[in-house]
Amino acid sequence: MIIAGLLFGVLFLVLNGAGMFYNPSNETGSKETHSTNNIRDFEFVLITGDGERPARLSEFLGTGKPVILEVTYIGCGSCEMLHSMGYLRDIYEKYGDQFEIISIFIYNEGREKILKYKENYELNWKYYGYLTKNAADFLISFEIKQLFAHIFFDGKGVERYRNYAQIEFVKNAYPRIIELLNMGEYEKIKEEFGEPIVVIQVG
Prior knowledge:
- By secondary structure, this protein is α/β, with parallel strands linked by helices.
- 37% of the residues lie in helices and 19% in strands.
- Helix 3 packs parallel to helix 6 (167-183).
- The protein is globular, with a radius of gyration of 16 Å.
């Protein structure tokens, strides 16, 4: 998985240099923001209690509950550090009636490996899935700049914020962000926490 991390880092640098990722510095006077225009519905394999089934992101959005889409893979250093710290698990245990988490593993890891990962890190949210198609196409479509990535959707299915690999930010900010999403105070999220931070790192 070290090789996978290196490949992701190279992919990011190449595509970003080619202008294929959104870069706020390319737009005069613009800051990095995310809107519904950036969202692409996608297919994945959803892991269920007794097997798996085809699913789409749109099935889980617009239900009245905010959703965090977690983009991850087995072997991702920051992802595994986050999960080992237990911050996201603790937040879901306390506030899980107010939002949902969907973890998408991008390298076709398969049901058994993901369930083993879930058990090892004692992950407690409901939804896990994996991609069966090209991960690079997915990363480009969603403009994913770093892993792990957490994409916040409000209860109507509109993207409102992102967090790229900022582990302490999960602990310190997520309860408040979830509260603001449920209150419909979307602008306050950026007012209180600023624009998403991207630090290029491999793995």
